[in-house]
Amino acid sequence: xxxxxxxxxxxxxxxxxxxxxxxxxxxxxxxxxxxxxxxxxxxxxxxxxxxxxxxxxxxxxxxxxxxxxxxxxxxxxxxxxxxxxxxxxxxxxxxxxxxxxxxxxxxxxxxxxxxxxxxxxxxxxxxxxxxxxxxxxxxxxxxxxxxxxxxxxxxxxxxxxxxxxxxxxxxxxxxxxxxxxxxxxxxxxxxxxxxxxxxxxxxxxxxxxxxxxxxxxxxxxxxxxxxxxxxxxxxxxxxxxxxxxxxxxxxxxxxxxxxxxxxxxxxxxxxxxxxxxxxxxxxxxxxxxxxxxxxxxxxxxxxxxxxxxxxxxxxxxxxxxxxxxxxxxxxxxxxxxxxxxxxxxxxxxxxxxxxxxxxxxxxxxxxxxxxxxxxxx
Length: 377
Description:
Layout: H1 4-27, H2 54-107, H3 111-300, E1 313-319, E2 325-332, H4 337-350, H5 359-368, E3 370-374
Antiparallel strand pairs: 1-2, 1-3
């Protein structure tokens, strides 16, 4: 599809071409702004503080100043590059504008060629215009950022001043505290002096009072000493009398104790001898009873098949009053489980067991049980 301007140029002849040239000149007769706004710097984060050290404040101010100068130098270099680029763009626009005028002059000789080149040049001019718009936007953005950086700088300066004021306040507070401390020291010294004088006066009065009391105490002690000696003589008399009574009572009690201990020792000896005779008697009864029980169990024992000869099993048999079996336990096995079980069965079959006529022996069997060495011949 052909461009409308070119169609008009072809249809209208020389008059139309002149109108087109005038229109194009109006399009490109614009001023290119040259000031480029600086890009903004990031806001400097300020940490609030309540105690300000002068060296730290000066160091921070120097650091901020150095950073500000570096950023300003970098921004100026960037601004210069943008200005140079914009100048090149303006030169390029001027050159293209002149080329377009030359092309229009040549269009009189070759209308078709002029139409094609005009379309191409118009497209390039649009691109250059777009580039100029973008550069203008960049310049505006740079200016905005420069203003933001200036605001950040002003904020940092305000915070520096606030820090300086805080430092001055801290110094004033320090001086006030120092003055208060000096006043407190003076007050403390005055109080200590007053206390020292009061202590000296109290000490003098105490010494006088102590002297008076010492004199009274000496008199009182003399009177008490006389009374004490009289009381001491009476006490010695009573003590001698009491000591004589105590010794007599102690000798009586010692004799009584010795007699009682001798009687107790004799009784213990008699009890031990009686217990020994009792245990010996019970042991004799149990030995005889054990043989009787072993013989009774043997009568009720059934020899297991293939049982070896000479086997011996030790059993613990516990009875209840009347001779019935309470429990049977293998204490030492014969080595043959079948033989051991046959001996246990024989014990149960032999029940009830006859009880010894001796009540002590019978009670011992019921309470402790009896060991049976079962070895049938």
